[in-house]
Amino acid sequence: MENLEKKTPLSDLMETTMLKIREMVDSNSIIGEPITTPDGVTVIPVSRISFGFGTGGSDYGKTTDKFGGGGGAGVRIDPVSFLIIKDGVTRVVPVALPAIGAIDRILDMVPEVVDRVESFAARKKEEKGMF
């Protein structure tokens, strides 16, 4: 088995490909930069990222100074949802098509129901003087 510590043109090619992918895809690609509107609403985009790469090469001929190789990479960024923050309340607004099944509809409603229950409980505490 050959020494893995040895630098080869193929390992250089793979390192360069991975470096370029790291430059294209970072955490700011998944959770975008917050956008604040003049009325105090903050919108944060959320995306799904898929990427892949391939690299290959070979020494050819009787000498090792001849090398042929290539690499390629692809990145796909799909918007998933937006986080909307207003008056301390955060809501998730999906970009996808509406839910089809009953379970999907229920899961989509959970954040709104939780917000309403918290609001109701806070109002009841204020009415009873229980801060």
Low-confidence stretches: none
The proportion of strand residues reads 35-45%
- What count of domains describes the coordinates? 2
Report the helical percentage.
25-40%
Largest sheet: 4 strands, antiparallel
Order of helices and strands: HHEEEEH
Euclidean distance between termini CA atoms: 71 Å
What are the main properties of this structure?
131 residues, alpha+beta, 2 domains, 35% strand
Briefly summarize what is shown:
With 131 residues, the chain is an alpha+beta fold. The protein contains three helices and four strands.
Descriptive notes:
- Strand 3 and strand 4 (89-94) form a beta hairpin.
- This protein has helices spanning 9-24, 27-30, 102-128, and strands at residues 35-36, 42-59, 67-86, 89-94.
- Strands 1-2-3-4 form a 4-stranded antiparallel beta sheet.
- The longest helix has 27 residues, at 102-128.
- The protein contains 3 helices and 4 strands, in the order ααββββα.
- The chain has 131 residues and is α+β, with helices and mostly antiparallel strands.
- The protein has 2 domains: 1-96, no CATH class; 97-131.
Question: Can you lay out the helices and strands and say which pair or pack?
Answer:
Layout: H1 9-24, H2 27-30, E1 35-36, E2 42-59, E3 67-86, E4 89-94, H3 102-128
Antiparallel strand pairs: 1-2, 2-3, 3-4
